[in-house]
Design a protein that fits this description.
Layout (H helix, E strand, L loop, with lengths): L2 E6 L11 H10 L4 H7 L3 H7 L17 E5 L7 H7 L2 E6 L2 H11 L5 E6 L10 E7 L5 H4 L5 H11 L1 E12 L4 H4 L28 H10 L4 E8 L7 E4 L26 H10 L3 H4 L2 E7 L8
Parallel strand pairs: 1-4, 2-3, 2-5, 3-4, 5-6
Antiparallel strand pairs: 6-9, 7-8, 7-9
Helix pairs in contact: 1-5
Length: 302
């Protein structure tokens, strides 16, 4: 049976999709399969938290079955079940008590799962982990990590928690993703061109271009890293590309949907992708990044 620890909870859910999370909690308690729930209700928060496609992001990854994994910002447990299936021990940290309860109800039969409610900045973990999952969380570091440099600070702290050969998974949007040039609003602020223009509105989150993210990782000591490119994004990926296996000119990529609001269509994304791929610029304009990162050991080469 899964365990839940709320001893670090500060008494308020500071991040939430609102009252619809109470509905999601009732849904998962009903025992109805996610597929059936989604046939009945296609609202974006329900789709995002319950869609089985979320697993596509890391379903393919060769996890070591004896490993220990820390999931930071586990949300409503979309990937927690996958992790519990693939490794020996999962510790999931989630800021929201309500979301933590959803995780528990979804995966309560997993005896290798411990859920900790609270801010990672307030939780002192002494263990070292083989894997750390940071999926859709780094961009919010400014909201929950203290200090003048929260993004690097978060990555540095997690790097210290890795086993010598451990891996951190980082997934987030590319601020120069093609969809943003094509008329999709910035995912976190719902404003057009917000990331492209450098976040002039000082919104709640901040994403990065590939070279910026690479620099963040390097400065955090995570010098051993590989970039992957989930398409159309990391949230509901249908395909995952890499520098070693990028999309080829004959591979037609579709437009990125907006599930939570209407979007403009300023250009034909499929045609644009063809031209971008031919020019060898796919990594610069991919809509999302997934990075596997680790600390290079003395004597090793990056």
């Amino acid at each position: 049976m899964a365990q839940i620890d709320d001893s670090h909870y500060q008494g308020a859910d500071l991040y939430s999709d609102g009252d619809i999370e109470d509905e999601i909690l009732a849904m998962v308690r009903s025992g109805t399969s996610p597929e059936e729930l989604l046939r009945q209700d296609n609202r974006w928060p329900v789709l995002y938290h319950l869609a089985p496609e979320r697993r596509n992001l890391l379903e393919w990854y060769p996890f070591r079955p004896e490993a220990r994994l820390l999931e930071v910002g586990a949300g409503c447990g979309a990937l927690t079940g996958l992790f519990c299936e693939r490794v020996a021990e999962v510790q999931a940290v989630e800021l929201s008590r309500r979301r933590s309860q959803i995780i528990y109800e979804r995966h309560r039969q997993r005896d290798n799962l411990r859920i900790m409610v609270g801010n990672l900045a307030d939780i002192r973990l002494t263990e070292k982990f083989d894997y750390i999952a940071l999926i859709g969380v780094l961009e919010y570091a400014g909201a929950f990590m203290p200090g003048p440099d929260p993004y690097r600070q978060l990555l540095r702290r997690l790097a210290e928690m890795l086993q010598p050969d451990g891996v951190i998974f980082v997934a987030l949007e590319n601020k120069f993703g093609l969809k943003y040039f094509a008329g999709a609003a910035e995912d976190h602020t719902s404003r057009l061109f917000e990331g492209i223009e450098g976040y002039p509105g000082n919104g709640p989150a901040r994403t990065f271009a590939r070279n910026e993210l690479e620099q963040l990782l390097q400065e955090a000591g995570l010098t051993r890293h590989t970039f992957y490119y989930p398409h159309p994004d990391y949230k509901l990926p249908r395909e995952v590309f890499s520098d070693e296996f990028p999309p080829q000119p004959g591979h037609l990529l579709g437009a990125a949907p907006n599930y939570d609001h209407e979007r403009l269509r300023l250009l034909n994304e499929t045609r644009a992708w063809v031209n971008i791929i031919r020019a060898g610029q796919f990594p610069s304009f991919a809509n999302s990044f997934l990075v596997t990162a680790g600390v290079t050991q003395p004597g090793a080469t990056t």
